[in-house]
C-alpha cells in the first residue's frame, strides 16, 4: 500500500485550498483506491471527517515527524505555498517540511505548485538551494510558476500541468447539492445567476462601488446576484461592502459549505466575477465563463491558460469600469463564450491529471 503525507494550506476555512485538497484526494483515490493519505492540517478533526483521510496537526512537530517517517512520499502542494508576499514565515515553514522529509529519506514531490512571487534574497536563496537538493520531482500549475523557479536558479526538470481543481469530475450529485443550496437561499433556480467573489484589499473602495453598479445592471437585465465568499469569514466583509452599495436585491452565502456544495453552485452560474483565484478555477471546472479581477500574478497566469486576460487590476482603478462592459459582452455572446471555456477546459482537465499520474509513477519506480 502506498502511503503519502500531503502538505498545503489545509484546515484554514479557505474554500480554494480545500477544493485543491478535495481534488487531489479524489483523483488519487480514483487511480489507486488503496492509497493511504495523511494530511497536515490546521484542523485535523475536520479534515478527517470531510475527506475520509488521516490527518495530523501541522503545528505538532512530533506528529508531523511520525507521519512522514511512516510514509513513502512527502507531497508538497498544491496551491501557492512557495511565496513570500504574505511574509517569509510561511515560505520558511513549507521549505522546512521539505528539508525534514529529505532528512527522513523520503521522496519529495511537488504537486501542481503555484510558485511565487519570491522577492526576498533570503527566500530566493533558500528556495533554490532546498528545491535543487531535496525535491525528487516537480510539477507546477502554470508556465509562470516554471519561469519563477528557473529565475531563482532551480535546475531540476519541471513539468507544467494544471490546478488539480480543473480535473474534478462534476457529477449529478454535485449539481444537485448546488441546486438544493440556492433553493435554500430563496433563489429562483430558473433565473440566470451571476456569482461574485471578492476579497479585502487595501484601497478597494472604488472597485467595490463599480462592482455594485455592475451587479445592479445585471439585476436590471433580469438576473440574480449571489455573493460567494471563498475564505470564510475573511471575504464576507468584502462581499458585504459591495452589496451595501447595491440598489437591487442580492443573495449571499454567509455560512461555510462543503467543496462539492460550492462546486454545485458554480455550475448553476451564467457568469462569475472573481478576485479569488479559485472562484475562477471552480467556475471554469464547471464550464462557466469568468471575469477576472487581478491582485496577484497567479490570476493572470490562470486566465492566460484559458485564453483570457484580467479585466482590471486592483492597482489600476481606472480599469474598473471595464467589468460592466465585459459582463454585458459575455451575456450577449454567451453561447460562444461557453463553447470557448468548454474547449479550454477539455485541454486543461487532461493536464490536471498528470500530477497524480506522475506521483503514483514515482512510487512504482521506487
Describe this structure in words.
The protein folds into two domains: about 5-160, Rossmann fold; about 170-350, Rossmann fold (3-Layer(aba) Sandwich), CATH 3.40.50. The chain has helices spanning about 15-30, 45-50, 60-70, 90-105, 120-135, 145-150, 170-185, 205-220, 235-245, 260-265, 275-285, 295-305, 320-330, 335-350, 355-365, and strands at about 5, 35-40, 55, 75-80, 105-115, 135-140, 160, 195, 225, 250, 270-275, 290-295, 310-315. The chain has 15 helices and 13 strands. Strand 11, helix 11 (about 275-285) and strand 12 form a beta-alpha-beta unit. It is an alpha/beta fold. The strands form two sheets. It has a seven-stranded parallel β-sheet with strand order 3-2-1-4-5-6-7, sandwiched between helices. The protein has a six-stranded parallel β-sheet with strand order 10-9-8-11-12-13, with helices on both faces. Helix 7 (about 170-185) packs across helix 10 (about 260-265) and helix 8 packs parallel to helix 13. The model has no long low-confidence stretch (mean pLDDT about 95). It is globular.
Amino acid at each position: 500500500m502506498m502511503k503519502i503525507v500531503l502538505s498545503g494550506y489545509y484546515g484554514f476555512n479557505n474554500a480554494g485550498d480545500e477544493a485543491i485538497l478535495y481534488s487531489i484526494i479524489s483523483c488519487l483515490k480514483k487511480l489507486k483506491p488503496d492509497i493511504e493519505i495523511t494530511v497536515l492540517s490546521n484542523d485535523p478533526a475536520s479534515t478527517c471527517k470531510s475527506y475520509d483521510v488521516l490527518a495530523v496537526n501541522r503545528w505538532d512537530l512530533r506528529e508531523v515527524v511520525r507521519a512522514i517517517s511512516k510514509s513513502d512520499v512527502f507531497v508538497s502542494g498544491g496551491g501557492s505555498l512557495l511565496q513570500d508576499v504574505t511574509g517569509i514565515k510561511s515560505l520558511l515553514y513549507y521549505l522546512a517540511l521539505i528539508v525534514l522529509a529529505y532528512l527522513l529519506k523520503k521522496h519529495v514531490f511537488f504537486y501542481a505548485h503555484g510558485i511565487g512571487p519570491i522577492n526576498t534574497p533570503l527566500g530566493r536563496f533558500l528556495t533554490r538551494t532546498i528545491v535543487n537538493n531535496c525535491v525528487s520531482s516537480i510539477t507546477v500549475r502554470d508556465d509562470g510558476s516554471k519561469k519563477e523557479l528557473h529565475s531563482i536558479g532551480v535546475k531540476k526538470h519541471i513539468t507544467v500541468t494544471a490546478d488539480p481543481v480543473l480535473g474534478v469530475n462534476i457529477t449529478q450529485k454535485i449539481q444537485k447539492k448546488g441546486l438544493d443550496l440556492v433553493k435554500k437561499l430563496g433563489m429562483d433556480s430558473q433565473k440566470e445567476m451571476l456569482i461574485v467573489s471578492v476579497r479585502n484589499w487595501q484601497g478597494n473602495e472604488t472597485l467595490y462601488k463599480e462592482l455594485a453598479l455592475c451587479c445592479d445592471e445585471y439585476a436590471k437585465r433580469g438576473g440574480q446576484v449571489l455573493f460567494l465568499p471563498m475564505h470564510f469569514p475573511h471575504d464576507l466583509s468584502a462581499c458585504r461592502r459591495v452589496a451595501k452599495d447595491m440598489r437591487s436585491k442580492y443573495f449571499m452565502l454567509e455560512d461555510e459549505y462543503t467543496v462539492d456544495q460550492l462546486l454545485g453552485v458554480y455550475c448553476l452560474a451564467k457568469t462569475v466575477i472573481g478576485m479569488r483565484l479559485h472562484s475562477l478555477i471552480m467556475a471554469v471546472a464547471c464550464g462557466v465563463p469568468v471575469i477576472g479581477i487581478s491582485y496577484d500574478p497567479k490570476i493572470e497566469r490562470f486566465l492566460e491558460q484559458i485564453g483570457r486576460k484580467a479585466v482590471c487590476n486592483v492597482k489600476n482603478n481606472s480599469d474598473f469600469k471595464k467589468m460592466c462592459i465585459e459582463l454585458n459582452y459575455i451575456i450577449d455572446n454567451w453561447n460562444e463564450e461557453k463553447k470557448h471555456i468548454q474547449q479550454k477546459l477539455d485541454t486543461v482537465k487532461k493536464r490536471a491529471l498528470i500530477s497524480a499520474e506522475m506521483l503514483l509513477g514515482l512510487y512504482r519506480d521506487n
